[in-house]
Amino acid sequence: MKMEQDLFIRPIISYPEKALIGEAYLMTIDFEFPVEDWPYEDEEYQVYCVVEAEPMFRSMPINQSTIVLHRFGGSYGEVKFLLKASLKAGIGNIRVSFLNKWGRCIQILNLEGIVICQNEERLGQASSFEWIERKTPFLQETMSSEEETNRINIISRVISLGSGLMTNLGQGLMSALGNRMKQRGEASGKLIDRAVDNALDKTLTRLTGFHRQYLEALRTRCVDLNVEGYGGLPRLALEDIYVELRMHPGGQGNPTLQNRNLTIWNILPKANDPDGHFLARLMAVIAGPGYGKTTLMQFLTLNFSNQGYLEKGAKELIPVLLLFRDFHGQIKAPNEPKLPQLIVETVQKLPRCEDLRAPEPWFKEKLQQGKCLVMLDGLDEVPDDQRELASHWANWQMQNYPSQFILTSRPHGYNSSLFKGMERIDVLDFNNDQKRTFIEKWYRFIAWETKWRWHWIESQRQEPSKHLSEEQAKAQSQDDADKAAADLRRQLFADRSLVDLAKNPLLLTIIAVGHKYKERLPQRRLDVYREIFQLLLEDRPYQRQTRLTISNAADNQTILQPLALQLMEANSTQFKPRQGAEWIQQRLAEKYEDPALTPTKFLEEIQQVSGLLVGGEGYSYEFTHKTFQEYLAAVELSECNLDLGERKVMSHFADENWQEVIYFYALLTDPVPIIERALEIPDNVHTLQLAMRITDDTQLIDSNLKRALINALSVL
């Protein structure tokens, strides 16, 4: 179906309607538009801005003259032009032209009636900026697509027996079998007991609805999303919040899976597949911390226990979720404990299953028939000295039972040589679509659960005239959610460093929690980094029982700070383990007296448990995100003797590689000396632009200093 659609964009332009002769002013240009109007296949669209201000002003771009629109309802940031007023008074226009990436002019705006005055008395109130907003359809692109709709009718059969009938049948059967048992001779008693017990277990499973009760218990266990180590969050419903992970084969396995970006549903058996057919029967899902491996296992458990798998076209499987952290101590040999035995012990720990007779023969039969989905989560959480045995145990179970298996681990915890026939699947970074979906789901749930649901409930307790209908409450909740989500999207996608940082579910959750509607994210950025280090260096390891030797985040961060500063001094992001150990040795000794924790072991823990470092194992380390290194270096400088820290910053002031460190340092301390230093070298456009960025993101710069900065930019 061929569609033609205009993209309606609202230019937001700030400029001086009146100005003093010879003075410098700031002009900003940005766009906004409805998210649903995006008609392009690409996620970005470039618009070049040309400002023709002569003879009224001399103009020059401060940062760049290109606005990059993105499909999520905004741009990556405004463009700024410096306007230097003419030395002659007069009235005139500014002409702004917008060009596409091919250089074709797509719109021209004339800003008319601009006055340049000789003195402030005639200027009156006009030295302030006025915001001019216009909405005009000036971007148009033809899109064509073929729409196909396939309807799948899903028929589910539910067979249930009344509780009274089940009780009578069960009691009668047990009584009859009990009488028969008494009549058997002791000589063959053990053999017969075992056979009868197996038959009895299977019969009771069928008649007492064990399968149904088991699935109900799994639903209860997995219905809520638990962000481990992150307190203070409201109850999060997993199905309402979850965003599908993108995956990619990490090895040379099934050629059907190669060179494809997949979801888990592309890999699991389909409803119409013959029994015993698997694309990847043995699967290792590998990813760093925060990428949602455990949440994925909970999501699959929930979907296979509430028939959600039907909507995905997947084959019915009996879900079994086992956490290595809970049972690794029971592993004594590659085949001990037996998998059915371990499952039964786990079932009896589920909600309301303490008295439920979990039938081991039934599980064994289903495993042997290939009808189970066995999820072994968190191999990396097994202690180092036990992990090889745990891997042999997992491999033995996988080879012994022809069911679907999924094992999860961080990269350091998985040794592929210990497994036979395993398909490695790597979890990919969140792309922009996933980030957008997460933000929308997040606010849709938060707005209802934390505000409007309670307004609606409370209104029902009041007189009828004050009642809210559920429909009204949900409509208002959705409106609030849309506004908050749009606000976060625009701010997130306007800052490339934050877009890059929000690459996995955990980090994006931290950013979403830190966002306050109509509050700029840069003002919260320091809080975001503090939250990240607190979570990764203390709270999350504690909750997952993979604790760091040093248990508090503050000490761990303090030990990492000189490492980050040394890397900045060396103009590098990578370091050898031996070099890193030397850089942290003194600080580690100050914070932890036990020599058993060597610098090398400390770095290994940070890499393997917190995920702040990648590499190691004989190779170079580096921080998982460069801004982690820059932030830690800035904190280290801010905690130094004030003169020493400031001297170090000033010695690197003109170094472009240090701009983020200086930016963080300014926000952590007093930004005024940084702005004043930039004004001392007015011919360096990079430092002036950095000073302008700091000025935009703090409230501590007075108007005179900001005016001096604008004037300095005007003479370049």
Would you give an account of this structure?
With 716 residues, the protein is of the alpha+beta class. The chain has 25 helices and 23 strands. Strands 1, 3, 5, 8, 11 and 12 form a six-stranded antiparallel beta sheet that branches. Strands 2-10-9-4-6-7 form a six-stranded mixed beta sheet. The two termini are 52 Å apart. A hairpin with a 5-residue loop joins strand 22 (613-615) and strand 23. The chain is globular, with a radius of gyration of 32 Å. Helix 22 (659-668) packs parallel to helix 24 and helix 23 runs antiparallel to helix 24. Residues 1-5, 125-170 and 185-208 have low confidence and may be disordered.
Defining traits:
about 725 residues; 6-stranded antiparallel sheet; alpha+beta; about 20% strand; 25 helices; disordered N terminus; 6-stranded mixed sheet
Compact overview of the structure:
The chain is an alpha+beta fold.
Assign the structural class, choosing from mainly alpha, mainly beta, alpha/beta, alpha+beta, or little secondary structure.
Answer: alpha+beta
Strand content: 15-25%
| Rg (CA only) | 32 Å
Shape: globular
What value does the average pLDDT take? 81
Task: Give the arrangement of secondary structure elements.
Layout lengths: L1 E14 L2 E3 L3 E9 L11 E9 L4 E5 L4 E5 L3 E2 L3 E7 L4 E10 L5 E13 L2 H4 L6 E4 L2 E9 L18 H20 L6 H20 L1 H13 L1 E2 L10 E2 H4 L5 E3 L14 H4 L14 E5 L6 H13 L12 E6 H4 L11 H9 L12 H9 L3 E6 L6 H17 L3 E6 L13 E5 L4 H28 L10 H24 L2 H6 L3 H10 L10 H19 L9 H17 L4 E2 L1 H15 L7 H12 L2 E3 L5 E3 L2 H14 L2 H10 L7 H10 L3 H9 L4 H12 L6 H12 L2
Parallel strand pairs: 2-10, 16-19, 16-20, 17-18, 18-19
Antiparallel strand pairs: 1-3, 1-11, 1-12, 3-8, 4-6, 4-9, 5-8, 6-7, 9-10, 13-14, 15-20, 21-23, 22-23
Helix pairs in contact: 2-3, 4-7, 9-10, 12-13, 15-16, 16-17, 17-18, 17-20, 20-21, 20-22, 22-24, 23-24, 23-25, 24-25
